[in-house]
Amino acid sequence: MAKATKPRKAKPTKVKPAEKAKKKPGVKKKIAKKKAALPLPGGLKLKGAKLPKRIRKVEARVLEPLSVLPTGADAMILDRLWETVEQRRLAGDIATSHSARLIARGTAKVAQKFGEEAVECLIEATMGNRAATVLESADVLYHLMVVWVDAGIRPAEVWAELARRQGISGIAEKAARPQGIIRAAGTTKLP
Asked: Where do the domains of the chain lie, and which CATH numbers do they carry?
């Protein structure tokens, strides 16, 4: 006896957006603009012809400079910010100064707040929220200044270290670090 075969179901055909527009009277046909794709970092290859959604989302963003730049906005603002935080620490007025209150709570709290702000900045950057990333970056820099004041580090010390590293490959600089640093970090996978 022959086996009965089930009739195959016809696969539904996908209707393109342009074809949908043709069926509806009075609907204008949309013309899709094709954007040039950015090259993938590190020579990564795509599995399919289409970029992953997260990369397409990043490419779709238009990064525009801030429309209004305040006067006196340059890197020297960090030195002035450090001086302000140091003055607030010395005054010790925890009732009116956020900096003084934070430092009075101890190094662990200062470090915790810096970490929280850094994570918030990373989240906004990952989400592609440019304006929020600018705001969170300012919070990160402020809390970094609080960390420096709490640790007794002057900005000039950090600037000198950056100047020392200038012109040195990051790979070479990391390879030259003493093994004690690697052991203290508890990992051999320092970037």
From this structure: 73-153 (1.10.287.1080), 155-191 (no CATH)
Per the CB < 8 A criterion, the answer to whether 112 and 150 are in contact is no
DSSP code at position 102: H
DSSP code for 95:
T
- pLDDT tens across 35-72, in order? 455 555 555 555 555 667 766 666 565 555 555 566 66
* Residue 164: Cβ within 10 Å count: 10
Whose tokens are 């238009």? That residue is 62
CA atoms within 13 A on the CB side of 20: 6
CB contact at 8 A, 126 and 114? no
Q: Which tokens is 73 given?
A: 């906005």
Two structure tokens written together for 72: 């006196």
Distance in angstroms (rounded) separating the CA atoms of residues 103 and 80: 18
Q: Is 50 helix (H, G, I), strand (E, B) or coil?
A: coil
Query: What's the pTM value of the predicted model, to 2 decimals?
Result: 0.57
Q: In angstroms, rounded to a whole number, what is the distance separating the alpha carbons of residues 94 and 46?
A: 55
Crossing angle for the helix pair 130-151 and 155-165, nearest 10 degrees? 110
Number of H helices, E strands in the chain: 9, 0
Cβ atoms of residues 51 and 35 within 8 Å: no
